[in-house]
Design goal:
The chain has three helices and 68 strands. It has about 725 residues and is mainly β. It is rod-shaped and about 220 Å long.
Length: about 725
């Protein structure tokens, strides 16, 4: 261990010895030679009453300079003497480094070499930032540090998306960017490809219905909901049924519910309306030729009156036959092929004649054939079951249909065929027929369509209607489908689509951005609008008409142009602590142009509380002011200048410190005392100046011997640096 320490000491001694060299110089020394000179003095002449000049001999000592060779130790070439030490010289300033050997810079801890004389700070992770010190990273504009101390892009609002660059948000899958032209905000909103009529898109391809609506599992759209099934109708609004044609809405008072009931214009006495204009008679009743429901008496009620179902009341002179409801006249003899037409009167049926010699027997006679019937008496046909006589004929029978054959005719017993222009529907009722399909409507009459609610007729076609469908196609009532490259906004309006956000502009047509006022489109990026400034030479246009100057320039408030910063510094403090990162320097030459400074300037990167050095394109040093929270405590920055907060004022070091206000309005006595003290100081200063002027007059008179000696001393001292006096001798020497 001792050997290692000795070796290190030996190397240090050799290094020190390599910095010190021997040099022979001419040593000058001074001696004082005794001489006699004529001293001029004044004497008052009592005769003339004036002062006259006279001389008298006087011995004095005049300095004389002599020289002799001397070997001294001085710093070797490329080394400079600083505070009795020889330190290496570096032609260029060692930035963030120490000059450890001639023209050799060694980086400070935490820095790495950038070039021969400059070291830059080291940051392990400084992406999207600027390394301003060892492991000190400052994010660039538009980025902030996250919990991992990493600079990440910042976006004002990026819900349902992720920020890829400053104020540029990319939406998650199932979301799209909605641009609100009114408030200049963009938001990622969920996308529902089919839209959400009667609801809103709460998540990608997921509609949340409004109150009173529910999701149709097949279509995924919101449809109105009715708690009670709309029989013979359809639900057109929440809890509201619209009845089909031929039906009307009737409220059941006891149940408190409404139903769509069929409508019969003439009513249905002794029956009920089973379908539009179709009455079904109650049990024991049947429809007559006029369509009214009348009571039915089994077997009829001839010569009587059916007063209720199954009950016949006979006319006077008539009785019921065989315990039935048939009322027949009462005759003594049976009327064969005839009937007792009146009490005790036998009348043959039509086509029958009484048998000759008989008063009660009738013989039938038929002249024509009974079609679909049977001749039961002369010239009288009885139709077969399911048939009835055609109008105006007694021998031709036609099929009979018990139910009314509306809009058709009965072609066989119980078989109804529709008239021309009609077809049977699902209810086996003849309904109007249209050769072309009535899409979005219904057939009102032959080849005549009527549109559903929410549709209108155009060119014999029912098309949906929408309140507003600009830049889109109306595909269903109030359902608009946007054209290609258009998307719906939150108000359901079709807006043009751009593949990415228009920065400082808005999307006017598909894939085309229009810049806001004061901005112009980027020649390389059609979605980026840059601010426009009339004249921003030596600066950057950060907003319309707002120019931010580059380093070395400042904004002229009158011309709004960046002017070069001028320098009028006299000199700077000549010493800094060697323990800090500052480098000693000599002096700054007065100049207003930093490019004219000489190479002898050696200066650190920070030379004052708010002054920082820079290099121009010619590698010449120059400095400028800067301002931040460190250099401007208790104040605020306006560009490069520091302004103190209320209650603070600047001291002689240009630092904001707490000020103690002592105004004359608050302390009048103190103010008067200060005024008197100021007057006293001014009078005392005038007196001292007057005394100094008188002293100078007597000292610097030309005939003053001491002044002559002083002139020699001053001329001698101008060429000397340090003149120590040897002991017991008047001789002095200087190196």
């Amino acid at each position: 261990m001792l050997i290692i320490k000795a070796f290190i000491l030996f190397i240090a001694i050799n290094e020190i010895s390599s910095q010190i060299c021997n040099k022979t110089i001419l040593e000058t020394y001074r001696i004082h030679v005794q001489k006699t000179i004529d001293k001029v003095y004044t004497e008052y002449n009592n005769i003339t009453g004036r002062y006259v000049l006279k001389t008298k001999p006087e011995t004095t000592y005049i300095p004389e300079v002599r020289s002799r060779p001397k070997v001294i130790q001085t710093c070797c070439p490329d080394y400079a003497r600083v505070m009795n030490r020889c330190i290496p010289r570096c032609d260029n300033v060692c930035e963030n480094a120490r000059c450890t050997a001639p023209n050799t810079c060694t980086c400070l801890p935490g820095y790495q070499r950038f070039n021969d004389h400059r070291c830059i700070p080291i940051c392990s992770n400084c992406q999207n930032g600027r390394c301003i010190g060892p492991e000190i990273c400052t994010c660039i504009s538009g980025y902030i540090k996250d919990e991992n101390d990493t600079c990440t892009p910042q976006c004002d609002n990026c819900k349902n998306g992720f920020c890829i660059s400053p104020n540029v948000c990319t939406c998650n899958d199932g979301y799209y960017m909605y641009d609100d032209d009114d408030d200049d905000n963009s938001t990622c909103v969920p996308n529902c490809s089919k839209g959400c009529p009667n609801g809103f898109c709460s998540a990608p391809e997921t509609c949340t219905c409004n109150s009173g609506y529910k999701i149709n599992e097949e279509t995924g759209l919101c449809e109105p909901f009715c708690p009670t099934e709309c029989i013979n109708g359809h639900c057109t609004a929440p809890n509201f049924c619209t009845c089909d044609d031929g039906y009307y809405y009737q409220l059941h008072e006891r149940l408190g519910k409404g139903y769509c009931m069929p409508k019969c214009s003439k009513g249905c006495q002794n029956g009920y309306c089973a379908a539009p204009e179709l009455c079904y008679c109650d049990s024991g009743f049947e429809r007559n030729s006029t369509g009214d429901c009348v009571p039915v008496c089994n077997g009829g009620c001839t010569n009587g009156r059916c007063i209720e179902p199954g009950r016949c009341e006979c006319l006077p002179g008539y009785i019921k036959a065989n315990s039935s409801n048939q009322c027949v006249p009462q005759c003594r003899d049976i009327c064969e092929n005839g009937f007792c037409s009146a009490p005790n009167i036998c009348t043959c049926n039509a086509g029958f004649t009484l048998i000759e010699g008989s008063t009660s027997r009738c013989q039938p006679e038929c002249e024509e054939d009974c079609i679909n019937g049977v001749c039961v008496s002369p010239n009288v046909c009885i139709c077969k079951p399911g048939y009835k006589f055609i109008s105006g004929s007694k021998s031709i029978c036609e099929p009979f249909c018990e139910e009314r054959c509306e809009n058709g005719f009965c072609s066989a017993p119980g078989v109804c065929d529709c008239n021309f222009g009609y077809r049977k529907n699902n209810l086996d009722i003849c309904a109007p027929y249209c050769e072309q399909s009535c899409t979005n409507g219904f057939c009102k009459s032959f080849n005549t369509c009527s549109c559903y609610l929410g549709y209108e007729m155009m060119n014999n076609t029912c098309i949906p209607t929408c309140d507003s469908c600009e830049n889109g196609d109306c595909i269903a009532p109030n359902k608009c489908e946007c054209h290609k490259n258009y998307k719906k906004d939150k108000n359901g309006q079709c807006k043009p689509h751009c593949k990415k956000k228009c920065v400082n502009g808005y999307c006017s047509t598909p894939y085309k951005c229009v810049c806001k006022k004061g901005y112009k489109i980027d020649s390389n990026d059609s979605y980026m609008c840059h601010p426009v400034c009339d004249n921003c030479l030596h600066g950057t246009c950060v907003s319309p008409g707002n120019c931010e100057c580059i380093d070395g320039y400042q904004l002229n408030v009158l011309t709004q142009q960046c002017d070069k910063i001028s320098f009028t510094t006299e000199s700077i403090v000549k010493k800094f602590s060697r323990t800090s990162h500052f480098i000693p320097f000599t002096e700054i030459i007065n100049t207003s142009d930093p490019t004219e400074r000489t190479e002898q300037i050696q200066i650190a990167d920070v030379i004052g509380p708010n002054i920082r050095t820079y290099k121009n394109e010619n590698s010449k040093m120059f400095w400028k002011k800067f301002c931040n929270s460190t250099t401007c405590p208790n104040g605020y920055c306006v560009k490069e200048d520091c302004y103190c907060n209320e209650g603070f004022s600047k001291n002689i070091d240009d630092i904001c410190i707490e000020s103690h206000i002592d105004t004359c309005a608050t302390y009048p006595k103190k103010c008067l005392f200060k005024l008197i003290s100021l007057i006293y100081v001014i009078l005392l200063t005038v007196l001292v100046v007057a005394i100094l002027i008188l002293l100078c007059y007597f000292i610097f008179r030309e005939d003053n011997p001491k002044r002559v000696k002083l002139q020699y001393d001053e001329e001698f001292r101008e060429n000397l640096y340090d003149i120590p006096y040897p002991p017991n001798s008047q001789e002095t020497s200087v190196i």
